[in-house]
Fold:
Amino acid sequence: MDVQVWTYILVGITFAIYIGIAIWSKAGTTSEFYVAEGAVKPLTNGMATAADWMSAASFLSMAGLISFMGYDGTVYLMGWTGGYVLLALLLAPYLRKFGKFTVPDFIGDRYYSQIARTVAVVCALIVSFTYVAGQMRGVGLVFSKFLEVDIFWGVIIGMAIVFFYAVLGGMKGITYTQVAQYCVLIFAFMVPAFFISMQLTGSPIPQIGFGSQLTDGSGMYLLDKLDQLHTELGFAEYTSGTKSMQDVFFITVALMVGTAGLPHVIVRFFTVPKVKDARISVGYALIFIAILYTTAPAIAVFSRTNLIDTVSEQPYSEMPEWFHTWEETGLLAWVDKNDDGLINYRPGAAIEGAPDLVRENGELVRGNSGEPTLTNKLANSQNELYVDRDIMVLANPEIAGLPNWVAALVAAGGLAAALSTAAGLLLVISTAVSHDLIKKQINPDISDKAELRYARIAAAVAVVVAGYFGINPPGFVAQVVAIAFGLAAASFFPAIILGIFYKKMNREGAVAGMVAGLLFTLAYIIYFKIMFPEMNSLENWWFGISPEGIGTFGMLVNLFVSLAIARFYPDPPEEVQEMVESIRYPR
Structure:
């Protein structure tokens, strides 16, 4: 059977499982909808947390970024992994003991202010919608390639599945669906890694294989071979870093502290019965996450090596079938600039408008004019090949010549990763509207049934907005997600940390800090990413800090403004200070 048939089978089976779980675990109360009644076992919660955590960025885009960026790409690996440890050790137990299952609820009560709660709701919505945009792009990528449907319809199908189990089951349905999705995504990620590691190095363990000698008899180590391939083509050595040290530091910190402020992960610590169970589930989740995160660098090296070996200096007419099927998606493109029929893969831009390549009436359209657009800059570039970074994990099995069922399995895994995180984010959005906005501020006397209805309506609206972002993607999955983490770092992290560890932080300081940090970070990102993308380069960035790393600076702005403004206003009430003291002592 070909890849498409296998994909229909495997994706169909997994979707049937997700829908079946949603029907079985339909939420009937707000407690079930918001936190699964706090009755989830630690092992189950750890697996669900891992699936919630490992989004399309982790599954699809992180290895792709590392494969193209080499050493520089490890900032995503370090930031996201370190961020989870920070969240697990520094915040999770205290927030769980505080007893408020949403970040806006914690901030509203800790800072004794409805204004603080409202600002936190706005921050949660901005962060969640930015994050979910990356997930829906991942859904569109998978559907457009493997099921050969237009990205529009691919996203619509993904929206329908998420809508069904997120809106019907709430946190209860999402939790048990995410357990199934974790099993699917980790199996899909590891199987090709095992196969390709054996092919290239003879080691079945990818974490060992990518640092081992090749089996081709050359006696070379795989990383040395990749360094050699890079330098021969004019790229920097794969194992060398080109990013400035300050940008590496700022991106890593933004990802770490942004992780600690992500609302869809924090809520998972309220789905278990006790604080002790929250700590245990954190440990399980860290193990489950580490399996994928320690494998991603190996997959990056495997896919990069196989790609260069397969396409560089090879005749276009002899390219394997996978090359041409990916061309049809617009995520891979070749322009023969010197008319020699060979694929010259070099540094530099291959074609203008490459991310916008589409099919019209069955024909591939390159660039905005319908033909390869070669400005002087692009014409002088020797590079003839455009490869979207987000396809590297999906195309990896086909490039390595693995069986068709493996490629289909990876497609099912990519959908599982994207949908699991998207569902968690949509729940955060619906909870922010129904619980933190309507229940806590607009109508405190609302009935449980009415609140549940508003939660489902908010989730439905959020699904539609998320679908729009999937159809009109704002960038690479990992880059979009990195921006979401930066926004979380600049808005939530200081308010949460000061709220737990500094009992004299008052509402005026917290609100001013959140607003200042969020507005500064948003302005910087919008300026370089939307208003003037042509200026998005090292020489124009402030202090050499990229938009992906500016969240760290925004966090510092937040901290400075919070502490400065707090000095001009009275300390919090005594009962609030006593509450802060109490949550730091174990019971």
